[in-house]
Specification:
There is one protein chain. This protein is an alpha+beta fold. The protein contains ten helices and 21 strands. The strands form four sheets. Strands 1, 2, 3, 4, 5, 6, 7 and 8 form an eight-stranded antiparallel beta sheet that branches. It has a six-stranded antiparallel beta sheet with strand order 11-10-9-14-13-12, with helices on both faces. Helix 3 runs antiparallel to helix 4 and helix 3 packs parallel to helix 7.
């Protein structure tokens, strides 16, 4: 066998291919099993995840030496390592990082609190050898000439940063940043989520690479990949996502078979790609404040590498700073602008078309909007549109128009309206208006909110609308 340095084999521990461990009891009885997670620490140490008190841990306690076999997910070469159990960690940075990954899978598969990390077993790696002729007798390592290179990180950072700095508004900043990362680094599927007014959910405000816009999709704080990143303020990268979920679901079935249905919660669907194989979610931070979460995903198991973590975290924080800067500018400019008054003495009238600039009026089509007061939810023609503050904003605008044919509005008057429930500072109003505009474009393109100048927008209707309110959905 050929000796190999452990630091050359980091991608073997991405979770794409399983690792098998062989241990022996004090009397020499062998035991072989697969590990759900092996974490690379440094050139001489790895950590094994321990979710259950099983035979492997019993054997390591009695006989600390073990054998590990693992595989390169690109070349398919096999490697054999001799390891020695050193100690177990139940808290600290290493434990937290490994626990977060398991928590992601547990919450997605409805097993929060059941499928969890008990300990991170740190082992010293005594030797690593490549298994000769594992694939084809006499064959060398598979060549990787088909793997494309990437632009240098520094040049890419410069170009993406330039687009962020030139952004005119929030929508332009997010669209430009995601577009640049797609064009320069092949990160074709991405989304940005911002916290809603409750602080318990994150809502997708921008996305790229999906068949539908994806705007409006939600993630719960502390649940799944996105929610865990938002709660911990720490990035998470998961490769081999399909295998991880299959493993989690297998454990879920075992719990169910043993009568543990009452402990299980419904499985949570993954936002974005239904067949994502790798995901990277990064917190967007300004100081200790969470501005949002940016997510990248791919159908390829190794699309996200170790270098993406540090590089994209820099960009995520730059985007956060840009968002915070635009938010502060908006607050300052909005406070200096007077609200547009509603027309006085206007008679109540059914909704009628406002001046149309760039889309066709369809006078024979009536769009029916319903507002449910119990959860501030708006439906259009029986289909969910938007809820919470964006829903209340839309309902205010449509009612203002219906009462007096009003079409012009300002951000400042929305901030001053106590019925909308906006916080006094850092209200993320512009992001809520972006969400509302994009949801209307996707679900009801005849109704548009068109920016006219900074802090001002117009309502444009391409058809009559009918408004009704109900107490409960």
């Amino acid at each position: 066998m050929t000796q190999v340095r452990l630091e050359q084999l980091v991608r073997c521990f991405e979770g794409i291919t399983p690792c098998a461990i062989a241990t022996a009891s004090a009397d020499g009885t062998p035991n072989i099993t697969y590990l759900s997670q092996v974490q690379y620490i440094d050139s001489t140490h790895i950590a094994l995840s321990r979710q259950f008190f099983n035979k492997t841990q019993q054997n390591l306690a009695a006989n600390p030496r073990a054998s590990l076999q693992f595989y390169d997910p690109l070349t398919f070469n096999a490697y054999h390592a001799l390891i020695r159990f050193d100690h177990s960690e139940t808290s600290g940075p290493l434990f937290d990082a490994m626990s977060a990954r398991i928590q992601v899978i547990a919450t997605h598969t409805g097993m929060a609190g059941i499928f969890r990390l008990i300990g991170a077993d740190v082992c010293e790696v005594l030797s690593v050898e490549r298994v000769e002729e594992f694939l084809i007798p006499g064959a060398d390592t598979v060549r990787l000439s088909h793997v494309p290179g990437v632009m240098t990180e520094l040049r890419g950072l410069q170009l993406v940063s330039d687009r962020i700095n030139r952004a005119r508004d929030l929508d332009d900043l997010l669209t430009s940043a995601l577009s640049a990362l797609d064009e320069l680094f092949g990160l074709h599927h991405s989304m940005v989520l911002l916290p809603d007014e409750s602080g318990q959910r994150l809502v997708t405000i921008a996305s790229r690479g999906y068949g539908e816009s994806g705007v409006g999709a939600e993630a719960q704080l502390g649940t799944g990949l996105i929610g865990t990143v938002a709660a911990t303020h720490k990035l998470l990268r998961v490769s081999g996502l399909g295998q991880e979920l299959r493993y989690g679901r297998a454990i879920r079935e075992r719990v169910r078979d043993q009568g543990g249905d009452a402990q299980l919660t419904p499985e949570i669907p993954l936002p974005g790609l239904p067949d994502a194989a790798s995901q990277l979610a990064l917190p967007m931070l300004v100081g200790d404040e969470l501005i949002g979460v940016i997510v990248f995903e791919s159908q390829s198991n190794l699309a996200m590498r170790l270098w993406h973590e540090s590089f994209l975290q820099i960009l995520a924080n730059q985007i956060a700073i840009g968002l915070d800067r635009l938010r502060q500018q908006e607050d300052e400019e909005s406070s200096s602008q007077p609200p547009v008054p509603a027309p006085s003495g206007a008679a109540l009238a059914p909704a009628r078309a406002a001046p149309i600039s760039s889309f066709q009026v369809s006078s024979d089509k009536v769009r029916k909007f319903q507002f449910f007061r119990n959860d501030d939810c708006v439906f259009v023609d029986g289909e969910y549109l938007v809820r919470n503050v964006p829903g209340k904003i839309l309902w205010k605008i449509l009612n203002e128009h219906q009462r007096g044919a009003r079409t012009q509005f300002t951000n400042r008057e929305l901030r001053l309206d106590p019925t909308l429930g906006l916080p006094p500072i850092k209200d993320n109003l512009e992001s809520r208006l972006i969400l509302l505009r994009k949801r209307l474009l996707e679900k009801c393109p005849e109704v548009r909110l068109v920016p006219t100048q900074r802090g001002r927008f117009a309502l444009e209707l391409g058809c009559p609308v009918e408004l009704t309110e109900r107490d409960h959905s």
